[in-house]
Design brief:
12 helices, cell inner membrane, 0% strand, MetI-like fold, 2 domains
Length: 256
């Protein structure tokens, strides 16, 4: 009841009325007859956008854990390369990284005979592996620095107590150190995941067909500009909202 009462406050009613009027104006005044023709391609683009975001986020976070751990407690021969990697990734534009992988490795691999004759060549000749690699390393570079701070923020007394009880190091890491570090970084991880979603349109520059490239194709074929962009904005807002909701629910379930 309290939630309904809060929702029915005057300023929120005015905002909802304005939003409803905007939706009605868009439905009546803008052109939507192109949707049936491009719907299959749009569905494929939405699916590819989501799976690229999910795969690169998961792989990037798995890589960020050893990067953060190496910087937090690793010896110099591990911490120095990890620090250099994070500095280079964070200091260069993601678009440049994507182009370097695609136009660099993508041009080098065809010149190596054993790669051209391998079973990987049908995949390496496509654009999406380089997009996944670039987005994964980018996410790992940013989250590696975040995980460094998360590991150092864990109470050292708990780790010393577990060590005093004779708990093996890997068990301490798996049961105490890593879970608490992940719990501390959850709000940041949710925001970085949304940023990863917003970074996926950059892969359209190397011919990967995702939802942004579909809207560009509609615009170039039909000269309709605003309608595809409006639907694109709605798609990103829905996915970003679902990501936010998922992480909030996860934060509520994680014990303090």
């Amino acid at each position: 009841m309290m939630r309904l009462r809060d929702l029915l406050q005057p300023h929120r009613i005015v905002l909802m009325a304005l939003f409803a009027g905007l939706v009605l104006w868009c439905a009546v005044s803008l052109r939507w007859d192109w949707i049936p023709e491009y719907a299959p391609l749009a569905i494929e683009g939405m699916w590819r956008t989501v799976w690229i975001m999910v795969v690169t986020t998961v792989l990037g976070f798995l890589l960020a854990i050893p990067l953060g751990l190496a910087q937090a407690v690793g010896p110099w021969y591990l911490s120095a390369p990890a620090r250099v990697f994070c500095t280079v990734i964070r200091g260069t534009p993601l678009l440049l990284q994507i182009w370097l992988f695609y136009y660099g490795l993508g041009s080098l691999f065809p010149q190596i005979p054993w790669i051209r004759g391998s079973e990987l060549w049908p995949y390496l000749r496509q654009a999406w592996p380089y997009a996944v690699l670039a987005l994964t390393l980018s996410f790992a570079g940013y989250e590696g620095e975040v995980m460094r701070g998360a590991f150092t923020s864990v109470n050292k007394g708990q780790l010393e107590a577990a060590n005093a009880f004779g708990m093996p190091r890997f068990t301490i890491f798996r049961r105490i150190w890593l879970p608490q570090a992940i719990r501390n970084v959850l709000p940041t991880l949710g925001g970085e995941t949304i940023l990863q979603l917003k970074a996926t349109p950059l892969v359209a520059t190397i011919t990967v067909v995702e939802i942004y490239s579909v809207s560009s194709r509609v615009r170039s074929d039909t000269f309709i500009v605003y309608e595809p962009l409006l639907l694109l904005a709605v798609f990103y807002m829905i996915i970003a909202g679902l990501i936010t909701l998922m992480f909030r629910r996860f934060e509520e379930r994680v014990p303090n």
